[in-house]
Amino acid sequence: MKKLYATDEKAYIDALKRHMEFYNSEGTAGCLIHGIALSMEEKKANGVPVPGEVITGIKTGLMGPIAGIGDTIIWGTAKAIILALGCTFALQGNIIGAFIPFLFPLLGYMLGWLFLKFGYRVGKDAVMKLMKSGMINTIITGASIMGLFMMGALSSSYVSVSTSLTFTMENAEPIVVQDILDQILVGILPLICIFGIYWYFTRKGANYNKVILGVLVISMVASFFGILG
Question: Which H or E run contains 166?
């Protein structure tokens, strides 16, 4: 702003006030909005009659839909894939697993820069046409489905819950509870665990620290009494 309005102090102050208004979007995909706003501010500084309210309106109007794209594709899909890949190498004892998670911030930086340049180049009109075409909703839906597949794959691969409970009856073979559960559905305990956590999130809110602490406490207590093995 200081560079654009170097010779007009009042316009500079107005621009600062304009961009101090409430704005909240996903950080990486939100760079698209930053690029659009920068392009519009540049036009305004060069004499094009762009009302300040239009710049503010574009930011507040796009911040929700763009946040949906960023949260779904970047945090819900790309992060899950990268961290799952890192976990796979780490569980195999490969040191590469320790460095793979660093691909996520690198990806965020690169995508943020590309979004910024794209928003600056195409401006608000092209982005609004893209939003109205319905393509954004298709991308979000596809990324959401892919993210759910990844969560399901990670849950089945890395969540391991079993019980060591057995009941001994006179003149009969011991009854192994885990064998009975496996006959009903293989992996039913991990499935119950995942759905229990999902239920907590939907009813009590996404408090990850409580979930982690709760899982640790329940696991230690159940293991101490021989319920879980």
Answer: strand 166-167
